[in-house]
Amino acid sequence: MKKSIRIGAGLGFYGDAWEPVLASIEKGGVQYIASDHLAELTLAILQKDLQRDISLGYARDVVPMLMYLWPAMAQRKVRFICNAGGLNPAGAASAVRDAFSAKGWTARVAVVTGDEVLEQLSGLAPAHMFSGAPFDTVRERMVFANAYLGARPIVSALQQGADIVITGRVADAALFLGPLAHGFNWNLGDERPASQADLDRLAQGLAVGHLLECSGQGSGGNFGSLQAWKDIPDLAHIGYPIAEVGEDGSAVITKAPGTGGRINFDTVRQQLLYEVHNPHAYASPDVVLDLSTVALEDLGQDRVSMTGATGHPRPQQLKVVGGYRDGFKAEVTWGFSWPDAYDKALAAVAMVKAQLADKAVPHEALFVEFPGLNSAHGALAPLPDAVALAELNEVWVRMVIHTLDKKAADGFGRLFPWMALSGPAYTCGFQGLNKSSELLGIWPALIDRQAVESRTRVEILQT
């Protein structure tokens, strides 16, 4: 009988739902759950947490989530891999260990470190990955920098018997490739060169990870097909996707029985193309995936097979996401009601701009949008004609200021309250008048992989 591995999707972002993960554990026959907690901007959120408390800096949902899942995981011997460590994987692992110890639960928790590269970045001074801007423009403002690790440290952690693996910044799909490479003993190219067969297996595993990394989006959630989204059943109880993978990397994408959502050709292919800039060269730390050779076959009954991925040698550089201090923002939202709601909103925006000019308020940018009219698609959203605009029941306005001066951000909200009695009629709903926040800009870059991988470590904590 051929060996296979069943791996289930965990979270797709910090704050995602836990219940579908439990359904995959209890009813989906999975051996592994891989959970992606980190969007690029999530690191900026975690940096602000870390500034307030040096024990934080990780996705704090990981502790209550694992407390919720562990009884079912332990009973079925399901192993869990996640990147919830964020900027402080050691802190996350310690928090999980302490919570488990308080319950008397026994687990081997692995922590992967070494993705933090802020010190190296200063010496390497990599240009902005897309704009080519020189590093010196942000050098003194950088506050964090983390490289995208691949599957190797996850494999190492699992080889050491880890029940739970907590990493920092790891490439999303590598969270899934790691347990597959471990379970099938795939060659990652570290000890011996990867053959074309090796690369194709890794490419299949990476494609599996890409299909599962966004939780319910791979099983009918966020489905964008015109009208067809209405046919996705029971999204309130959606099941996250599960992959049943063979030793050659061939996979069947499915979900736990009795759960909502849908796995079919269309929902799977939508996720396959998600966030793919070049389908011929989807780069990861472990392999470069050519998606153009992938074949999908709808098997019916929420099962789609995926075969044919082609792999190319891994890149010599790793992507880094860095964060730098980029000033402050403040935003205010308020609205106007009929009649002439849109014209009143335009007049009020002009009044705020006049005050900014009168007071010489320093700012880098001022952003204006009208929620319900153009906030989803911006300039691509055509406004209604003049007659329709004049008859709108209500119009809301959102104004955001970006400034390097904290005092200017703190004072932005004071430009609005007086309009309640002295501006256009029938205004309401002011929000955000007393709020400002620090902004962190994102600095993507490429650096030599050896500068990172030589520092990567795996430590096992026993609860």
Helix-strand layout with pairing:
Elements (H helix, E strand, L loop, with lengths): L3 E6 L9 H9 L4 E4 L6 H11 L9 H15 L2 E4 L6 H15 L4 E6 L4 H7 L17 E6 L4 H8 L4 E3 L7 H11 L11 H17 L28 E6 L4 E5 L9 H8 L9 E2 L4 E3 L4 E4 L5 E4 L2 E3 L4 E21 L3 H18 L6 E5 L16 H5 L3 E10 L2 H6 L7 H4 L4 E5 L5 E12 L1 H4 L3 E6 L1
Helix pairs in contact: 1-3, 3-4, 6-7, 7-8
Task: Please give a handful of descriptors for the protein shown.
alpha+beta; 10-stranded mixed sheet; 14 helices; 463 residues; Alpha-Beta Plaits; 6-stranded antiparallel sheet
Tally the beta strands: 19
| Number of structural domains | 2
Question: How much of the residues is beta strand, in percent?
Answer: 15-25%
**Termini, distance in Å?**
36 Å
Report the sheet with the most strands, covering strand number, pairing sense and barrel closure.
10 strands, mixed
Q: Sum up the overall morphology in one term.
A: globular
How would you describe the overall organization of this protein?
There is one protein chain. The protein is built from 14 helices and 19 strands. The chain has 463 residues and is of the alpha+beta class. It has 2 domains: 4-321 and 449-462, no CATH class; 325-442, 2-Layer Sandwich (Alpha-Beta Plaits). The strands form 3 sheets. Strands 11-12-8-7-1-2-3-6-4-19 form a 10-stranded mixed β-sheet, sandwiched between helices. Strands 5, 14, 15, 16, 17 and 18 form a 6-stranded antiparallel β-sheet that branches. A 3-stranded antiparallel β-sheet has the order 9-10-13. Helix 7 packs across helix 8. It is globular, with a radius of gyration of 25 Å. The two termini are 36 Å apart. The mean pLDDT is 96.
